[in-house]
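Same chain as my last thread, 106 residues:
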Amino acid sequence: MGAAIRYWPVRVGGHSALLLGPVAVHPTRQGEGLGGLVIRESLGRAARAGHARVMLVGDAPYYGRFGFARLDDVRMPPPTNPDRVLGLALRPGAWDGIGGEVTRAI
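reply #2:
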C-alpha cells in the first residue's frame, strides 16, 4: 500500500484514549492522499471498535481537516509543544472535562 499508521493506548487523567502516530507514507507515494486515506479509515475502525477519543501531537492545520482540535487541558511530557497536542472525539463530548497528564496504559 505504501502507508502505515500506528495507535498506542494511553490514559489521560485516568481516562482511556488512543494516541495516533506515527503516520508514514512511502516517499514515492506522497502527495496522492494516501496519508489522509489511512487516517480516515483507521479513525472509523477505532470508533467501530468502541474507542471514544483519539489524540496526537501534530500540525493543527493538517489534522484539523480530520476534525482534530487543540486539547488545552491535556499535557504531554516535555519537550512537547502544547499547541501541537490535538484531539478528536469519536463519540460526542468524549473529550469534555478530560485533562491531565498523558501516561501509558497498563
